[in-house]
Queue: 2 jobs
Job 1
Amino acid sequence: MTLETPSPAPSRFLRIQEVASELGLTTRSIRYYEELGLLSPAARSDGSYRLYDASDIERLGFIKGLRDDAGFSLAEISQLLEDEAARVRTREAYAQTVDAVERRALVAGSLSRVERQSRILRDKIARLEAMVSAVEARRGRLEARLADLDAGGPGEVR
Amino acid sequence: MTLETPSPAPSRFLRIQEVASELGLTTRSIRYYEELGLLSPAARSDGSYRLYDASDIERLGFIKGLRDDAGFSLAEISQLLEDEAARVRTREAYAQTVDAVERRALVAGSLSRVERQSRILRDKIARLEAMVSAVEARRGRLEARLADLDAGGPGEVR
DNA sequence: GTACACCTTGACGTATACGTAAACGTTAGG
DNA sequence: CCTAACGTTTACGTATACGTCAAGGTGTAC
C-alpha cells in the first residue's frame, strides 16, 4: 500500500516539487533560476521551504516558454524580464498607498518591458517564417522534380 | 600599407574563413558541425583545405538559422536534416544514370524530410504566437491600469 | 513523538558548443 | 624560392545549464 505524501497544506502556495511537476521543470532548474535572479518565491515557510504563488508560476511558465520555445539563453531571458528585485518591490509596495506618481511609473515600466517582449517575440516569428518560406520553396522544387520523374524523367540535378 | 590576402583562387569554391564571414559563423563552429556530421565540404584542395560550394553554404545558413532563430540544439538539427552521408550520396550519385526507381526514392526522401522541417517550424511558430497572445493580454491589462491611474486611480493590485 | 517524504544549502560532476593555442603544412604573390 | 596569410589536426580550456550526491533540517499523518 502506498503512503500518501503529506498533503500540501491547503494553502494558496505551492512547494517547489509541485510547481516543478505542474510546469514540467525540475526543482534544480527552479532553484538555479532563483540563483540567477530570475524569480524568487513569494514566501518561505518557517522552516524556509520555498512557497510559490500563482504569479510566480505564471512567471516560471513564461521563463520556460522563452527557454524551450523561443530558445533564449537564461542571460537573454533575464534581460527580457523585469528584474526580480523590481518585481518584489512592486508586489510588496504597490498595494500600499504609494504616491500616485510612483504607481504610474511602476505600471509604465512594466508596460514598456511587455512591449519589448512582444516586439522581440514577433521578430523571432518573422525570422522563422522566412525560414519556412525557404523550406517551402525547396519543397516546391522537389515536388516538381518528383512529378517530372513520374512523367518519365528529364532534367539535370539542381 | 596593407598586404593583400592571397586572392582566393577564382573558383566556385570558398574556403572556410570566407564561408564563416559570409554567414557570421566561426571556422571553429563550421569544423565542429562537420565533426558532428552535419555537413562536409564539397571538396578538399590538394593540401586538404576545405572547399565549400553554394549548396554547402545554403545548408550551413539553414543550420545557423535552426540554431540561432529556432533555438534547436545541434542534436535536434541533425535529426531534422538529411544526414550528411545521404547528402553526399545524392550529390555524387544522382547525376549519374542511376535507375529511375532509386532516383525517385532519393527525391521522395528529401521531400518527406522537407515536409517534416516545415511542420516543425510551423509548430514552433504556433507556440511563439501563443506566447505573444499571453504577452499582449498582459499588455492590455497594464494599459487599462495606466488609464485608470491617469483618470484618478481606483482598483486593487492584480 | 516518531516516521517518512519533502525540503534546505553546499559542492562536485557533466553534456553541449564552442574558444584558444600549439605544432605544423599549404597557397599564391613578388 | 621565400614569405605572409591561411589552412590542417590535436588537444586542452571554458561558459551555460543543469544533474546528482551528501548532510542535515522540516512537516504532517499516525
Job 2
Amino acid sequence: MSGFNVVKGFLNLEIADSEWLAVFEQLRAQPATAPVAAGGPRRVVVEYSSPNTNKPLHLGHLRNNFLGYSVAEILKATGATVSKVNLVNDRGIHICKSMIAYQRFGHGETPASAGLKGDHLAGKYYVLFEKHYREEIKQLEAEGVAADIAKKQAPLMAEAQQMLQAWEAGDPAVKALWSQMNGWVYEGFDETYKNIGVDFDKFYYESGTYLLGKERVAEGLATGVFFKKENGSVWVDLQAEGLDEKLLLRADGTSVYITQDLGTAELKYQDFGYDSSIYVIADEQNYHMQVLQAALKKLGKPYAEAIHHLSYGMVDLPSGKMKSREGTVVDADELVRDVVAAAKAATLEKGKTEGLSEAELEELYHMLGLGALKYFLLKVDPKKRMLFNPEESVSLEGHTGPFIQYSHARIAAIRRKAAELGIAETADWSSITQLEATERELVQELARYPAVVGEAARNLSPAVVAQYAYDLAKAYNRFYAEVSIFQETDAARRSLRVALSARVGEQIKASLGLLGMQVPERM
RNA sequence: GGUUGUGUAGCUCAAUUGGAUAGAGCAUCUGACUACGAAUCAGAAGGUUUAAGGUUCGACUCCUUACACGACCA
C-alpha cells in the first residue's frame, strides 16, 4: 500500500505498483486458458440449436447457437464437465407439410439436381405448401366456407394430417420419404454448423423420444398426478403452482411438444447424470418450460430441480419482428456469406495482409466476418430482446469483434518484432518501482479475468465476457498509444511491456475463445 | 382479462448485483500516422435513467402505482 485518501465517505487505499507487478507475475504463472474456480454445478448438459427439419436456420437460430456454444465454453472454463446436445424436432405436422408439397410439386428433385443445400430444399417445399394452402383457403372462403373451417378442410392440410397419422402408424412409404428428406436437411444443417463453428456431443431426435414421453404420461396417469378428461385427452393441473391446466396428450393419443420433452429430459439424465440441465430456448417458451419443470416435479423425477431455462430475447429487425409468412426472415447461411464478404472487402481495402496464401486469406475473412456477427449477437445481455441492424452487424470498427481481433493482430506483430530483436517476455523487473498509468490499468484489467468468467458462468451470460474482452482491448490500445515499447531504453521496462502485450494477447484469445471466436495473427 | 419480461444519450448497448461525477460504440464536431499496425488513439457535444410516490447514509438497481412496448396463457 502506498497511500490513501478519503472522498465522500469512501476510504481509498492505494496499492503500490510493486504489488501490481507481483499480481502480474502471479497471473503469468498460469496459462490464460487455465480453468478458474467457480464452484457451480459440475456436470452440465447444455441443449441448444434444436431446429425443426422443415426449413433452414435463420437469424434467431444464430443467437441461440452462439449463446449455447458460448455458455458451454464458459462453464467448461470454470472446470465443469459440459455436454452439448441438440434436440432435433424431426417429426410433426410441419415436416409433413414439406413432404406433401414435395410429393406434389417436387418431380423427384434432389439437393444435387436443384443445386440447393438440403435444408433449403426442404424449406422451399414448406414455402410452396404454405402458398398453395393459402390459395385453397381463399378458394373455400370464396365458396362461402367460414375461415376457421376452411383452414381445416383445405385439401392440402387434410393430406398433411393424414400423412402425420400414417407416419405415426409406421407407413413404410411415408417413413421412407421422411428419412430421405430429413437426411437432406441434416446434411445442410451439418454444413451450416461447421461453417458457424458450433458442435454437439450428442443429437436427440423427437422421433426417438416422444414414445418415452408417452410412457411418462401413462405413469403420471397411473400415479394420479395427471388426469384424463372425458374426451380421452390427458392433462396436468398446475393451478397450485400458479399455472394452469396443461394438455399433455391429445384425445387421439398423438403427442404434443411437451410429451416428448418429458422423454428427452429423462434420456439426457440417463446419458449424462447432470446436476444442471440448461435449455437454451427463446423467451416465448417461458410458460412451456415452467410447465415442463412442474410436470416433472409432479412425477417426482429427481432431475426436475436441475432444469434451467436459459431464456433469451428474440431478435428484431429494423422493420420489426421476423415473420416467415411475410418473407422477412433473415437466412443464416446468407447472412454469414454477407458478413464474410464485408470482412473481405474491408481487409482488401486495408491491404495489410501481404504474405498470406489464398487459403489463409479465405480463413481470415471468415474469421473476421463471423467474429463480427458473433460478437454483435453475444454482446447483448441474453435475456434482452435485441435489434439486429444489418449495417452495424458487418461493422468492423468501434465496439465490435474485429476491433478486439485487431488488437490481437497488433500484439502478434509486437511479439514477432520482439522475438526478432531478442527481447525476452520474461525478465527481472525488480528495478521497476513505478508504473505508467496505462501499464497499471492493464494489469488491473488482466487480473479481473477469473472474476469475469465466474460471473459469466453464474449468470449464464456471454455478454459479460464480451464486455470484458472489449475493455481489455480498449485498455491495451490506450497503453499502446501512450507508451513506446521498442523505443524504451530501460531493458527491464522494455521487456515488461512486451510481457504485458503477450499476456493481453493470450487473454484476448482466451476470452474470445469463450465466445466461439478466433483471433488472427495478422489482418 | 391473467401471468411475465423490458423501458438508460438521436440510435445500439454497459453500469462490478444497493455505492463515488451513470459509461462505451455509432452518428456529429476537433485534433493525432517519416516512433512499434490509424480496423487505432486523444478530445468536444449529447442524460430529470418512462412518470409519480416510497424504503435509507446512499437507488438505474429494491417496493407500490401508472404508462409504453413485447411474449405467453385464455
